[in-house]
Amino acid sequence: MRKSPSAFNMVAVALGLAFLYLPIAILIIYSFNDSRLVPVWGGLSLRWYRELLQNEALLDAAWVSLRLALVSATGAAILGTLAALALARAGRFRGRLPFSVMIYAPLVMPEVIIGLSLLLLFVVADLDRGFWTTAMAHTTLTMCFVTVIVQSRLADFDWSLEEAAMDLGATPLRTFLSITLPLISPAVIAGWLLAFTLSLDDLVIASFTTGPGATTLPIRIYSDVRLGVKPEINAICTLMIGAVAVLVIVASLLSKRYSMSQEHKGALGAPM
Amino acid sequence: MLSDNSAEAMGVECNRAAPPQAGRVLLGIENVTKRFGGLTAVDGVSLDIMQGEFLALLGPSGCGKTTLLRMLAGFEKPDEGRLLLEGRDITAGPPYRRPVNMMFQSYALFPHLTVAGNVAFGLRQEELSRRDIDARVTDILKVVRLEGLGHRRPNQLSGGQRQRVALARALVKRPKLFLLDEPLAALDKKLREETQSELRELQRRLGVTFVIVTHDQEEAMAMASRIAVMNEGRIVQVAPPAEIYEQPNSRWIAQFIGDVNLFEARVIGDASPYLVAESAVAGPLHALRPGGVSPGTDIAIAVRPEKIHISRATGKLPANAISGVVADVGYLGDFSLYKVRLDNGATVKAAVANVSRRAEPPPALGERVTLDWPAESAIVLTR
């Protein structure tokens, strides 16, 4: 039996949610403000969304960020999945712990340090900084998130499925493509979506690794805001929040559907 | 349980073209050894698997039977020795290039594919037309009585149905050798007994060579035409079930298979064709004399409980008989298991079949009884 929440709990939840979402709500509301001055309410309008369409610099930056997120999320999904598979398949070998710790290091390492070290690497390697260096940097940062997600899915993976496929005549490649990959795909997709959103809103690392001609949206917004908050920025931020929210919801629905199908299996698993 | 005409429709080639020839070796296992780190899982095993037989690898857990099976399937490579399938060396061949299929203990059904998709998976790896695949899938689903369930997912099936999907998925490949790893372990008792006779019938009908791994001796006895008993990585005896039971070749097997009374004894005389052995527990005993046993040899005389005749003591002890007091009676319906304590404290088990609703009450707890058995029923064990 479920008790109805007490007044104290209700207030606590309301305050917590307000703390998290009030700033975002204000941003969204003000993106529909007709007034040129951000803090002054001048009525509801889509004016700044129209202005945004004229703002080549912001749109270019958004396009760069989008491409960057697509490229680095795809790279991270591939590398991260491979790393997770390698760790899961190798079982317990000597030096397994250092390996898994190294995979997870970027999760806890300050971004400034990652950015700085990558910058040094690119300088030493004599790479021109720009779109591709940032894509590499984002791939490095986000692949560990993919690894964590895929690895947790692989923890209860039934490896006899792979053996069964090979026993039935499938080569290792066919086995991976037709059995393993479809079964872990919810985790891979969830990891891809997470990598995508992480890349989309990264400011710190991109500011170290990017160069002229590859200004990402967060960098553009940050530099514009230093000259004063323009209402267009509210508009583009609202669009970004929308995009990220959709992706996060899709990712969580995917993993939820997967775990529900697992439970379903368990419920019917008993011999009838 | 299995429908008959559909097995005809399946048209297993090896059955049609040539009836299983007795005595033809399908798979030769030559001196195979497998080690994991410092542990020797399979230790120099040699065994010929005959075309069309139903062989059971039986042994306690950790005896190496599953490792041996996995080497036949190709999941493990032997460290030493060879595997010859119809004379061709397949020792190093990967699992996907062997005409050998396996049914996994967990069934390992692909959860994202339907029943039909699971069964068709193996056929899709061969160069077959879609029509052929569909026809063979439909046929085999009929054989295992799953027609109409082709569109279901594995998680929508009962345990017994899943087991039959796993069976169909492997058999549809028409393997030369079909491996089953503890196929009945996940089923409840009643379903297990049904499936035992189903599998035996299926094997006879298809003529495919079956190798089953099990730790359950009753299962092995009920299904197999030959049993290879394994212990500590070695095969200790290979024989038909009745021979394993009636003629075990060592104390270990006699105790592993079924219930047995073992009397350690020393041969003291000869009463051809019998030998006389003196047992500290049971006194002088007679048994058929096997070759190579001379006076002075230490042997064990093994007597199965159901071979022992129990009667009320009359005061006069016949030959090959011992006397004791009923210490425990377990009434099991079809038979009663008596535990009789001898005067020197040892316990002997005797099973009495309850063949009639007898008027005379059977010996009761605490009563003095005589146990005797024909000398032919005793097994002489030298190892």
Describe this structure in words.
By secondary structure, chain A is mainly alpha-helical. Chain A has one domain: MetI-like (MetI-like fold, Orthogonal Bundle). Chain A has 11 helices and no strands. Chain A has helices spanning 7-31, 47-54, 56-90, 96-108, 111-124, 131-154, 160-167, 172-200, 204-209, 217-225, 231-269. Chain B is α+β, with helices and mostly antiparallel strands and 383 residues long. Chain B has 2 domains: 4-251, P-loop containing nucleotide triphosphate hydrolases (Rossmann fold), CATH 3.40.50.300; 259-381, Nucleic acid-binding proteins (OB fold (Dihydrolipoamide Acetyltransferase, E2P), Beta Barrel), CATH 2.40.50. In chain B, 25% of the residues lie in helices and 34% in strands. Chain B has helices spanning 4-10, 13-17, 65-73, 115-124, 130-143, 159-171, 189-206, 217-223, 241-246, 251-256; strands spanning 25-36, 39-50, 54-58, 80-85, 88-89, 100-103, 177-181, 209-214, 226-231, 234-239, 261-271, 274-279, 283-288, 298-303, 309-312, 321-331, 335-342, 347-353, 368-372, 379-381. At the A-B interface, helix 7, helix 8 and helix 11 of A face strand 6 and helix 6 of B.
Question: What are the SSEs and their pairings?
Answer:
The complex is a heterodimer of chains A (272) and B (383).
Chain A: H1 7-31, H2 47-54, H3 56-90, H4 96-108, H5 111-124, H6 131-154, H7 160-167, H8 172-200, H9 204-209, H10 217-225, H11 231-269
Chain B: H1 4-10, H2 13-17, E1 25-36, E2 39-50, E3 54-58, H3 65-73, E4 80-85, E5 88-89, E6 100-103, H4 115-124, H5 130-143, H6 159-171, E7 177-181, H7 189-206, E8 209-214, H8 217-223, E9 226-231, E10 234-239, H9 241-246, H10 251-256, E11 261-271, E12 274-279, E13 283-288, E14 298-303, E15 309-312, E16 321-331, E17 335-342, E18 347-353, E19 368-372, E20 379-381
Parallel strand pairs in B: 3-8, 3-9, 6-7, 7-8
Antiparallel strand pairs in B: 1-2, 1-4, 4-5, 9-10, 11-12, 11-14, 12-13, 14-20, 15-19, 16-17, 16-19, 17-18
